[in-house]
Amino acid sequence: MSQDKQTKLITAGRDKKWTNGVVNPPVQRASTVVFDTVADKNYATINRANKTLFYGRRGTTTHFALQDAMTEIEGGAGCALYPCGTAAISNSILAFVETGDHILMVDTCYEPTRDFCEKILKKMGIETTYYEPTIGAGIADLIQPNTKLLFCESPGSITMEVQDIPTLSRIAHENDIIVMLDNTWAAGVNFSPFEHGVDISIQAATKYIVGHSDVMLGTAVACSEYWDQLREQSYLMGQCISPDDAYLGLRGLRTLDLRLKQHAESSLKVAKWLQTRPEVDHVRHPALESCPGHEFFARDFTGGNGLFSFVLKTSEPRATTALLDGMTHFSMGYSWGGFESLILANEPKSFNSLRTVANPGFEGTLIRLHIGLENVDDLIADLEAGLSRYNSMVLEKAASEE
């Protein structure tokens, strides 16, 4: 990350009109906003979409500060706030589609994104075609006359494929298609979406923006062409967040650079250690050549984080359970991006229900790790003990079959 971006994380959203002379924008809670004069009320009504106090659902100064900060950090023309990342994804899509439209969705998307396409959009008469994440210029073959938007997620959920976003964006724009990106992995700072052709950059700010596993928050930053529509459609769908959550999102931004650097340093050390293990088939860490799309990571990203996966050579569910159940520093839990380390397993057959065209064809179990801020040697020791339990169970099964 450049010094300029490091500084932005400290200064963004701290305009004096939001801070009133203190360091952090205060938490301003409000539903009703009262006006002294008809002129004041009329002014607020006319400017209600432009960070003016009008009604609580339009936002307070705390929300305006976070919106300013996210817009400055990611680029674009404005930021809409949502109660979680899934709300940011679904409402960003809904803001631009209607019955009869077609969308292109990366097959390695976040599972709730796929569920939204299958269980909500399908009922609305909106068709989804899933595409292989490394398709590149081949995306042109999937475009239909009614294709409205292209949705990307890079790296991909669970299997970590990195997409060629500039190529995908160029082809989409040649066909008047909106490009949306789930930019959560890069936290809005390690991949600059608008410099690579993205129109709307979406994050589960629950993850690294907040950074402490205690707030649900979503953001969507849009370019000038689509900002007004995203803002107004999201408002009409009732999307808003509490000022307290907005405040915690702002606070998380101030340490984001330091946290990401430590997550990235530790995760790469763990990933390289895992490459030496005989039980491991391969490691899917975007910074390593063994990860699909690594060349695009090296070209387009400015840093990493703590989330990656590795694949075991075998699939032994009882052995995997033995590995997971005895961990000391790694906890089993959904989400990621907090200070704590997490571990989850995906057996090969699980991808059959999650993927249409991008089933990775693993023979072994995939283990997804989030490397937190604990001492990295303690984490490696925890994994080493887990793999020892795994091996013992594999050997026990082999002996019982003889």
From TrEMBL:
Keywords: Amino-acid biosynthesis, Cytoplasm, Lyase, Methionine biosynthesis, Pyridoxal phosphate. Its cofactor is pyridoxal 5'-phosphate. GO terms for molecular function: cysteine-S-conjugate beta-lyase activity; pyridoxal phosphate binding. Its main location: cytoplasm. InterPro entries: Cys/Met-Metab_PyrdxlP-dep_enz (IPR000277), Cys_b_lyase_bac (IPR006233), Cys_met_metab_PP (IPR054542), PyrdxlP-dep_Trfase (IPR015424), PyrdxlP-dep_Trfase_major (IPR015421), PyrdxlP-dep_Trfase_small (IPR015422). It is found in: Cytoplasm. The modification N6-(pyridoxal phosphate)lysine is found at K207. It catalyses: an S-substituted L-cysteine + H2O = a thiol + pyruvate + NH4(+); L,L-cystathionine + H2O = L-homocysteine + pyruvate + NH4(+). It is an enzyme of class 4 (lyase). Pathway: Amino-acid biosynthesis; L-methionine biosynthesis via de novo pathway; L-homocysteine from L-cystathionine: step 1/1. Gene3D superfamilies: Aspartate Aminotransferase, domain 1 (3.90.1150.10), Type I PLP-dependent aspartate aminotransferase-like (Major domain) (3.40.640.10). One of its GO terms (cellular component) is cytoplasm. One of its GO terms (biological process) is transsulfuration. Its EC number is 4.4.1.13. Belongs to the trans-sulfuration enzymes family. NCBIfam families: cysta_beta_ly_B, PRK09028.1. PANTHER family: CYSTATHIONINE BETA-LYASE-RELATED (PTHR43500). This is cysteine-S-conjugate beta-lyase.
